[in-house]
Fold:
Amino acid sequence: MTRNFYLSLFICSLFLIQQATAQQKFVHPGILHGNAALDLIHQRVNGAKQPWLGGVEALRANPFSSSAYKVKGGFDSVAREKDFGLHAQEVNNDCIAAYYNALMWTATGKKAHAEKAVEILNAYSYKLKAIVRRDKELLAGLNGSHFLNAAEIIRYSYKGWDPKDIAQCEKMFLEVFYPVVKSYAPWANGNWGNACLKTAMAIGVFCNNREIFDDAVNYYLKGEGNASLPNYIYESGQCQESGRDQAHAQLGLGNLAECAEIAYNQGIDLYGALNNRLLKGFEYTAKYNLGGEVPFEVKSDVTKKYMHQTVSADNRGEFRPIYEMVYNHYQNRKGINAPYTKKVIDKIRPEGAGPRPYDQPGFGTLTFSLKKSE
Structure:
């Protein structure tokens, strides 16, 4: 096929996606987890089925999934500068505890987990006024998505969250988080911008704001910064940060995958964009981190600040918990082979939380491995 053919196909797909987003109402819950998936998690865990039982056992063993977790926040202002700045570690702990307790509520039905998630969300909703300093986009993007996933699950599955508290939570996302992420950090490496993308998209869903959601979808497909799909993953599957290190390359890939899953839950197929470009990125990265050889193109990023000479061996073989969700979509939903992604899953299953700080959702064996049998 010619390049012009694929360009025409991409433009046509983009038009159809834009038409769909303009007409469709939001599905709830509908960020990373829809009702059917949440019900299936509960059924499988309570039916003692593997590999999901192993997944919930891994989640239960994580200290941030405990209903006895001691909340650190909220705080008036927070900052991430130099990894852990003004309350950054406490925010990361609290947001992941909110999300993991929401998952434990789903998996076990124990009310104490839902109450813990509500406690954390309320602590921030009524207190947090600003995300500040350098790296604020990363704090808002990486931590905001966890808060949002927790909030979406609890809002639509637990009757004990007061409507006025939900409204205050919406206010926090719109007035504190969204102003920080809405530009998608076009000056930075792509993982910054697509961390912002996933949180902006989630804000659009949780707050029923079509303009915010559509803007994030459009940027994913054709944004000018490193964060967009065509600028982060090249035709070969090489990523904008493949020459930087494998930790950041996987972080950026995982962020884009979360965007695709959110959109899929809203009836929009970003997974299939650019001839399944996301899968190419995962297969390239999985193959290299499993010890295989991959092609590498010396190419400047869109900012002209980063020009790597070779694929980086830094963090090679250190797998982030990003693979189950993508494999579930391509192989289980669509029947598209993803052999290297599958090899990673076989190596690390059950997928856990990954390295600290917890930038990705993790525990994909429990939450995204939804095929009836393996």
